[in-house]
Specification:
This is NAD-dependent succinate-semialdehyde dehydrogenase. Belongs to the aldehyde dehydrogenase family. Pfam families: Aldedh. Keywords: Oxidoreductase. This protein is α/β, with parallel strands linked by helices. It has 14 helices and 23 strands. The strands form six sheets. It has a seven-stranded mixed beta sheet, sandwiched between helices. Strands 10-9-8-11-12-22 form a six-stranded mixed beta sheet, with helices on both faces. The chain has a three-stranded mixed beta sheet with strand order 1-5-4, with no helix packed on it. Strand 13, helix 9 and strand 14 form a beta-alpha-beta unit. Helix 2 runs antiparallel to helix 4. The longest helix has 21 residues. It is globular. The termini are far apart. The chain binds adenosine-5'-diphosphate. The site of adenosine-5'-diphosphate has 14 residues, from helix 7 and helix 8.
Length: about 475
Amino acid sequence: MEHFHMIIDGKNTGGELPVLEVTNPADASVIATVPYAGGKEARQAIDAASHAFSAWAGLSAWERSDRLRKWFELIEENKEDLARTMTLEQGKPLKEARGEMNYANGFISWYAEEAKRVYGEQIPATQQNKRLFVSKQPVGVTAVITPWNFPAAMITRKVAPALAAGCTVVIKPAEQTPLTALKVTALAKKAGIPDGVINVVTGDAEAIGEAWLADDRVRKLTFTGSTEVGRLLMKGSADTVKKISLELGGHAPVIVMDDADLEKAVAGVLASKFRNAGQTCVCSNRVYVHESIVDSFTEKLTNEVKKLKVGRGLEEGIDLGPLIDDSAVAKVEKHVSDALKKGAVADYHGSRLDGLFHEPVVLSNVDDSMLCMNEETFGPVVPITTFKSEEEAVRRANDSIYGLAAYVFTENLSTGIRISEQMEYGIVGLNDGLPSTPQAPFGGFKQSGLGREGGHHGIEEYLETKYISVGL
Ligand code: ADP
């Protein structure tokens, strides 16, 4: 079994520390160990990142872009190994892990280019003897805390824009999936990204988080994970007034209008619902279908859902891997039994299989009192409810503390745009079940988070605005 090291100041470190076992959720076998570090190592990582900051920020944007491009190329060369590592530690089907590697690397190639487009401004002055300039500077040392559901993409979506802007980073990957993170970041050193620019610490989340929150040298915190931990980190950032970006929970509604193309709507729900076995924050979580088409929609969807194959992610033809842990499976079972108890009908009731596998479930006759309509299920369950009017669909879809992604299906362009504009969500897929892409802004309204990742918007999160007023 392989023992991985952490990367601090470009060196493999943590060999002397106790270890954290990384398991394969497909069979609970231990596949590797990583160091179980705490506050001391977290502070060493800040030392390294602070030390490396001025030289990295001092490179020209073109030089930083060049290193990012080399990192991208090395990841391309190692994509298959990285995808397999990801499937082993996270469980997702290999085809999805390959897809994630493309998506993850897309952020590095995009921000290698965006590094060159961090523009300043000149503002017309009121007096002739003044010149007003605005320039952008990197925020500084950035703490990156990521979840297990996208072990590579959640790292690159944050680290690529941070590095492009001139920031240095300290990263804590999720305890379930540190291997992909360590492998991806090890390639950065080979790409010529200097020691200390990227540091990775594995271990005690709370102790590492506390050390980073307390340290004034960490000027920015970027987090993806649960709303609960997000709130905690937001509070913890207050003492040192850090800049923060948060990508938190979602509870994505899907609205299927009576004029929707049902093939498109079914394909969209399948794509958004079952990716990563339902364990993404943009997974559709509740489906509102116009009452006039609900029977044919449900039948078509159920026919497709029945074809989905559940199994070990490394095997051919698998659509859904295992869920991440026991509590994830328990939540799925709880949401399903709660809905059935309150009157929902199971159009397809897949079972819990041995280990952490759960087959898909399609529920209709669902109402707003059920847990699945109020909380993120994070599993392969599709609850279907009906609506009579557009106004009702929009109101119920918006009735949530979350506001990350929403989906709308209609063949009428005016209806589609009208509903999209009313959605209190940061991302709307209009006849599109997979809207995420590196060049577009990803992020939520309301309690789904703060800030945006991706696109030209994403780099702004790592930049300070400096105004220089010149008297001539
Ligand atoms: P999930 O429910 O998806 O596991 P979490 O919000 O618990 O989401 O975890 C997301 C990331 O936040 C992980 O890397 C986890 O280790 C980290 N994390 C959890 N609790 C804390 C904490 N108190 N301080 C800092 N990081 C934390």
